[in-house]
Hints:
The chain is an all-beta fold. The chain has 1 helix and 27 strands. The chain has a 6-stranded antiparallel β-sheet with strand order 16-15-19-26-21-22, with no helix packed on it. It has a 5-stranded mixed β-sheet with strand order 1-10-9-3-7, with no helix packed on it. β15 and β16 (181-184) form a beta hairpin.
Amino acid sequence: xxxxxxxxxQEFFAIDLRLTPGSLPxxxxxxTIWIEFPEGVTFPEGGKVYYHSPKKPxxxxxxxxxxxxxxxxxxxxxxxxxxxxxxxDGYYSVNVQVLPEAPEDLLWGRxxxxxxxxxxxxxVGAPGPGPEPENLIKNGGFTDVRFKPxxxxxxxxxxxxxxxxxxxxxxxxxxxxxxxxxETSKTGEPGRLIDLINGDADGHFPADAExxxxxxxxxxxxxxxxxxxxxxxxxxxxxxxxxxxxxxTGYHVLPNPEAPYHRPTCLRAEVxxxxxxxxxVLAWDDYVQYCTGAGAAASHDAGKKLNAxxxxxxxxxxxxxxxxxxxxxxxxxxxxxxxxxxLDANPDGSSGMLLAHVRLSATP
Length: 364
């Protein structure tokens, strides 16, 4: 909060408790948490209060009856902060509803625990575009690129590449070696396992994307230097909740779009959970993209003819099983052999796709 809610609209808001610096952990101390809703706002009939722990399924709490006269809701819960228990460091979500007669304004209430209080702000207004859901992927735009000392982006074939990148933010980088063997980078560096393309210079991103591409977003070429490269990232999720993985794929800007380079490019996207070596694939799909035939300008060679990426948005929805609190999102180049455990990896030149604008968000 604040977020814009229309008259009559129901929603949840979050209460996130944190220790102040230097405080001792709290292990199971029972406290009363109270909410004083703003005038014009109420706790709805049949409303819900949940506690969301990072390590356990969400817990439905039993609040005391809502006091309409004082607009107060109270519930009791055992607080775990910084004690490394399964219930530690979660957050609460509380139902709220705007009354039909509420003024269209910023309305103020209060939240309290013990003697500590904090403001509750709810913006009431006519329905408008909803807020963009939180992206659970870190560095989904590949903006966080760290280079080796003294190195930076460099032109290659007229395109600005990050061949000397040392780290790609929260992403783990590696390559598929064939016959079921996945090998992560021993140094953590992308190296030649994947390639990075400067998005501002040579991304040719679509102007109508929702949400729009931000300045500074870059592109991962999952092919790398003739490798079946991959990137992956672990994400905390809520058991039983639904999510949507969204991303953009494009055909490679290099090499030139003349024959014989009209071959299809490929990408595998998957969401997995479980211990390494015994993982379960929760959702996956294989994508193929062809040369559009359209040209694009090279940022560092006016005479160079590139292939337009032909960016396409891809969506991969999934629901998290009960008891699962973390999933791994992986993007990989299957090459020409795919991931058959009986076959060697075969990148076969430029077989990998371009990848950009990765988002993972909860859905209703």
